[in-house]
Amino acid sequence: MKKADRKQQGFTGERIIDIPRSTLIKCGSMPLIQQFHILRIGFFPKARHHYYQRPTGSPDSILIYCTDGQGWIQLPGRRIIVQAGSVFVISPGTSHSYSADPDNPWTIYWFHFTGKHCADAVKVVMGTSNPVQALVVPYSSERIALFERIYNTFLKGYSISNLLFANLTVSYFLASFALPESFQQKEERADTPTTRAIQFMQDHLNETVTLDIIAKAAQLSTSFFSRRFKLDTGYAPIEYYNHLRIQKACQLLHSGELRINEIALHLGIDDPFYFSRLFKKQLGVSPAQYRQKRGASNTI
Q1: pLDDT digit string, tens, across residues 167-221
Q2: pTM value?
Q3: Fewer CB within 10 Å, N side or C side of the chain?
Q4: Is 52 exposed, middle or buried (0-12, 13-18, 19+ CB in 10 A)?
Q5: Residue 274 burial (C-beta neighbours within 10 Å; 0-12, 13-18, 19+)
Q6: What is the pLDDT of residues 87-140, one digit of tens each?
Q7: Into which CATH architecture does domain 189-300 fall?
């Protein structure tokens, strides 16, 4: 692939979540997930001209699951062909590059994960700590639904319950590759004041909402709702809402279609300087720095 052909803008339909630095620190202190948790997660459909390289490798493990098209992963001394129905995990510190096939570009679900149990996860999924080819598994709509549930749980915000559920569910997702014959789907949805509030927040990310408005959507008094919400999520309602707004901002920065001040307006924030401060407080970098490092390059 010629360098000029490599993709520099967002893929149509792409979705990406970068877990904020402060949240990752929290994950590292939670006994149930500190040994294994997600840092980034995303979906690239028909990712034509997708290419990236890391000569010194990544500090994280990277799982790439292809459901359509094909591509390749270049490791030291060998090239792994990744086709529809195959999965591969790149171990930390391994020099690599990868690319979508130019004529039949891949559609991939992927995530970065870290923790002391990452090496064990690679062995469980790939059958060895040093795989020489991608693992081919039967397609499963239930597996895709499980990935979506993990992704959508992160979309709901970074409460302790969401972090625990999403990261613990990853083990179930990995089991669908290691033990496909035993894989089954189970899905439940609870309707509580907190879930109603979070759904309201997600539906109104482009507006400026107040605590009173959110409490009304949850059908509770403001004072009782605030206590209940923080008990359920670990966050004050407006703090949680701002997490969701910045999460959406990251997705818009990846697409490359809007200017930073336009993204702020899209999220109901009139002051771009306030938006930048809010963004940097959560992710540790400004929106412009984030776009330069990740949004424009579309790395996974």
Answers
A1: 999 988 998 888 876 664 444 456 789 989 999 999 999 888 999 999 999 999 9
A2: 0.70
A3: N
A4: middle
A5: exposed
A6: 999 988 999 999 999 999 999 999 999 988 888 878 888 877 677 789 998 888
A7: Orthogonal Bundle (1.10)
Distance CA 135, CA 157 (A): 32
Q: Would you say the CATH fold of 189-300 matches that of 1-187?
A: no
Tokens, residue 191: 């309707």
What residue segments make up the domains of the chain, in order of their start?
Answer: 1-187, 189-300
Other Cβ atoms within 10 Å of 234 Cβ, number: 17
Kindly state the average pLDDT of the residues 274-281.
91
R_g (Cα) of the chain, nearest Å? 20
Residue 1 and residue 289: Cα distance in Å, rounded? 27
**Secondary structure element (H or E) that encloses residue 216, with its range:** helix 211-218
Distances (CA, A) of 43 to 2, 29, 46, 107: 24, 28, 10, 8
Contact yes or no for 156/202 (Cβ under 8 A): yes
**Residue 38 near residue 60, CB atoms below 8 Å:** no
pLDDT digits (tens, 9 = 90+) for 236-250: 999 999 999 998 998
- Nearest Cα to Cα of residue 181 among 133, 143, 134: 143
Overall CATH class of domain 1-187: mainly beta
Q: What pLDDT sits at residue 6?
A: 52
The HSE-up count of residue 194 (CA atoms within 13 Å, CB side) is 20
The SS3 of residue 273 is: helix
CA distance 48 to 36: 31
